[in-house]
Write a structure and sequence with these properties.
CATH architecture of the largest domain: Sandwich
CATH superfamily of the largest domain: atp-gated p2x4 ion channel domain
Oligomer: single chain
Number of strands: 17
Number of domains: 3
Structural class: alpha+beta
Largest sheet: 9 strands, mixed
CATH class of the largest domain: Mainly Beta
Number of helices: 10
Distance between the termini: 18 Å
CATH topology of the largest domain: atp-gated p2x4 ion channel fold
Amino acid sequence: MHASGMERPSCLPRSSKMNSYIANALSDFFFKYETPRQVLVRNRRVGVVCRLIQLGVLAYIIGWVFIYEKGYQSTDTAVSSVFTKMKGVAYTKVDGEEWVWDTVDYVFPEQGDSSFVVMTNYIITKGQKMGKCPELAESRYLCNSDSDCERGMVERTGHGHMTGKCVGNTTKTCEVVAWCPVEDDRKIPDPALLMSAENYTLFIKNSVTFPAYGVKRSNLVEGIDNQYIKSCVYDPTTSPLCPIFRLGDLVQLSGFNFATIAKMGGAIGIVIDWTCNLDYDQSECKPIYTFHGLYGNPNETDMARASVGYNFRYAKHYMEDKQEKRTLLKVFGIRFDIIVRSVARKFDIIPTLTAIGSGVGIFGVATVVCDLILLYLLPKREFYNNMKFKVTETVEQCDNLRLGINTFIYYIPDVYAGPRVSANIILQHKEPLDEFSSEK
């Protein structure tokens, strides 16, 4: 025994020590199991905090992850197609001239796309031909002499190419090369000329496919046959699956006033929502229609805004007396955009295990919070610190023995410092040790 009171450890050659270490490490890896040490703490406040946190985590996992977010299911979005067809006839009588409008006249484009415009009002300019004529009698086009009309100049909001002449008798305006007579769109018909568009009907045919699950659905679901379609009109309460919509109802459901939007034009979005839970029968996968006013003039009082409503121009060209002429229409209408929104869900073991694993990991938050309370906030934190952390003594000797130096390094823990080492006591004996001394 040494003066320190400890038995001198035996020291093997370096190669033997390395082989023994490797063998022990392999043996420990394959044949031993390590489990964390747990300390049972009887403290009401900490116990209540722990259970409250665990209860909150459990509510989050069950309520949010599994019930609301459907964390046990995988998802897929649909490949979709939309076909539309308008029906209805309008009658107008302007300046004694009668006109009947059908779908070829008031729907743009005619192909039945998912985005189209229904004309509700218009300004018509007939018999235009290419030539020279005065501009409109507006302040921006007025002139007193030819010098006020710059030859070759084109006004951004004008109708043609200036000739450099100032023409007219009472109100003089610059002469332009344009389609004459130029369009006068300063007075919009009120009420709208095609108010009967309120009774047009829109037929929507929509098909969706969820490729991940091999499911194909159509908005013509079970129970909707030819006989039903001939008589039904969509109603959110009585006929929520009917694919035929009255335009007046669409405008009202979007929050707009038909008379106002018909005069100036606007845009309405029709959303077809396919949110399907394929854990149930496919027949339960049905569309839900919603309607949104995108832009227009629904308040009827906000006339100070720029570019209110929706309009565009188109012309019908024809030949008369070997001269090309055209009829120009400035069209005010309602633009409909059909938007398909889809998501299908179905049980999948991989997201289920992922959700459970992440939830179990979140339970560790309770342990971390309670440890912080025990080790740093409670009055007996030093006692809990010593109970949680166990510090062992370490002796390093063999390398110094080979040098002929009897050295012991003791790491003595400070009970008030927890796992940290607070003091190192080093005792060195420089006299040669008997069993390693070359001299007896």
